[in-house]
Amino acid sequence: MTAPAASEPRGRSLPWLPALGRPRACYHLIIGTTCLLTAIGLVMVLSTSSASQLYAGQSPYSVFLHQLVGVVIGVPLIWVLSRTSPRVLRALANPLMIAAIASLVLVLFIGQDVNGARRWIELGPVQIQPSEFAKLALLIWGADLLARKEELRQLNDWRGLLMPLLPGAVLLALLVQAEHDLGTTFILLVILLALLWVVGTPGRLFTCMLALIGFALLASILVKGYESARLFGFLHPGGGPTGPNQQAIQGQTALGSGQLFGVGLGHSREKWGWVPNASTDFIFSILGEEFGLIGTLCVVFLYAGLAYAGLRVARRMSDPFLRLAAAGITVWIAGQALVNICTVTILLPITGVPLPLISQGLSSLLVTMAAIGVLLCCARHEPDAAAVAVKRTVKGPVKRPVKARQNNEV
Fold first, then answer.
1. How far, in whole angstroms, is CA 353 from its chain's centroid?
2. Confidence class of residue 384 from pLDDT cuts 50, 70 and 90?
3. Which end of the chain has fewer CB atoms < 10 Å from its terminal CB, N or C?
4. Where do the structural domains in the chain lie, given as residue ranges?
5. Is the dihedral of CA 337, 338, 340, 345 positive or negative?
6. What is the pLDDT of residues 32-75, one digit of tens each?
7. From residue 298, how far is each of 42, 126, 138, 295 by CA, in Å?
């Protein structure tokens, strides 16, 4: 039932890129891709939001400064979580889950209603989206729960696998779906499936779970009018540039306008009211318009590098909790990026999922950076990386010999 141990040789350099064979290569790769994606996100939020802010008669830098504050808070958060003991993370599992459920219930009563969706709690000048924090809560709680069951050898039947993991995940998904947030509901279920896959769920049970989740999502789409309209627009595309399919059509126009090298930073025309949610859900289309195919491919490669590093950390991990956490975070961030990109390129129906580390949104940014911090914590406890750290601690800093000064006096 348990996932097999890592078979990849540790410490051996890869023939096509020797640097990736170093003990802390994944740790540095995660940091590098995160920094680059965050920098791209700040640039694109400034470029896209300035147009809508000027149109509204406000400062073009207000949204950018809001996002910058999130980065300033998120960087220390990454540093703290990356150096947190796994025991502390596991101790926070139940409190995080309880807080996530309580906040999701609270938002249904005192949440702000925007465009028919009640997802935000207003705290002074900022708005918090509890559904974003539910992703991290489910991940930590589920990883800790399955790790304890694996350590106690309680994963021998379907009850040991699914109880109480499945009821807890379903409760979070139902509360998020009550806020009319299908995209986040989908990501929560993806995290659940990732945890079940990594822990070694039998193929027949996993297939049944996949079919059940697919049926539930389809039923939810067909019941609600606006979600079924999105599905119908995806299956039967068409209409004018300002009709029901304006977001999809104008997003495609923006991507096509960029061609190979783009029209240049800040020179997008589609962000001036043509592409709805240009700084959030459809920021990838404006990125493609301003930086072209080269820019979009660079962003895709950065997400691919982050996914490679995260899965490699999970594969090399011997601790069950860290293995589950690393794999779950990687699938969550990479899967969310894939869904957003496929939505913009009309390979999937519009779901309203932000692009991790790039889209505007304080809650999404902070939660993603917190997840990166946990992933870095896993990378630091990778067996080879931990052995190097212990060796450095024992030996202490290397002191260079100081040459004696020659006395040339006669």
1. 10
2. low
3. C
4. 27-383
5. positive
6. 999 999 999 999 999 999 888 887 778 889 999 999 999 999 99
7. 16, 32, 31, 5
